[in-house]
Design brief:
two-stranded antiparallel ribbon; 242 residues; elongated; alpha+beta; 9 helices; single chain; 49% helix
Length: 242
């Protein structure tokens, strides 16, 4: 057996051992499993399934390194967001969790549709539409926050902080969903989901606008419940029929 074949055999055994574990994988093990899956033929699907079952920040970090066309990757990301998983950051003061935030950043565009889209943002989000300058280019951001609510039954419940001009959280979710569906097609747009940045890409193995839409759906389901999502989808379908 060559040295290369021996190394591959050892790495295969290591990955199989990780997949066989019944306890949740820590951050190092999740990252290691993802790296090995990219090197060892025939293991991507099993690793995606294993990571998708965890619904942890470490598992999401690892899933985002795998090709999204692999069965189980998008499903795992969706379920993690639907469960309210947020990114973890390690610093000098220890590990801290990112807040429950859904945000969309986008640049001024020459697309013919942009002026109307920007107007819709201003109408829906009012003063909460942020404007920034980046390398001389105007960038904008709209944000929804999931605020924890007190609960007597021990179940985790949240509310969506609505924009100043739209006090109904349902309307805020509808507006965000509609705007994401159009702004996500523009170059330079970035979706933020609970601390993870998902930039615009059309690569088949990346987080495309269509996949992002599923994650927006998952976040709204987690933060407010399925009713807001159903209303947004109905509104979008009516708009498409016009």
């Amino acid at each position: 057996m060559t040295a290369e074949a021996s190394d591959l055999s050892q790495e295969t055994d290591e990955l199989d051992a990780l997949l066989a574990r019944s306890d949740p994988l820590d951050a190092e093990a999740c990252a290691r499993a993802a790296r090995l899956a990219l090197q060892i033929p025939g293991r991507l699907r099993a690793v995606a399934h294993k990571l998708g079952q965890q619904r942890s920040a470490a598992a999401v970090d690892a899933l985002l390194t795998l090709p999204t066309r692999t069965p189980g990757v998008v499903e795992g990301l969706y379920q993690a967001v639907r469960a309210g998983v947020t990114r973890r950051f390690t610093g000098d003061d220890g590990v801290r969790a990112a807040p429950g935030v859904l945000a969309l950043e986008f640049s001024r565009s020459r697309a013919r549709s942009f002026p109307e889209l920007l107007r819709r943002c201003q109408l829906a989000f009012g003063e909460q539409l942020e404007r920034m300058e980046q390398a001389g280019v105007a960038r904008y951001r709209i944000t929804l926050w999931a605020r924890p609510l007190a609960s007597d039954d021990g179940l985790a419940r949240y509310r969506i902080d609505a924009p100043a001009r739209g006090p109904d959280p349902r309307a805020a979710g509808e507006a965000f969903t509609w705007l994401h569906g159009r702004l996500s097609r523009l170059r330079g747009t970035r979706l933020w989901v609970n601390g993870w940045a998902l930039p615009h890409t059309l690569r088949r193995d990346g987080i495309t606008p269509a996949i992002q839409a599923h994650l927006v759906h998952a976040w709204l389901e987690w933060a407010r419940g399925p009713a807001i999502v159903a209303a947004a989808q109905a509104s979008d379908e009516q708009e498409e029929r016009r």
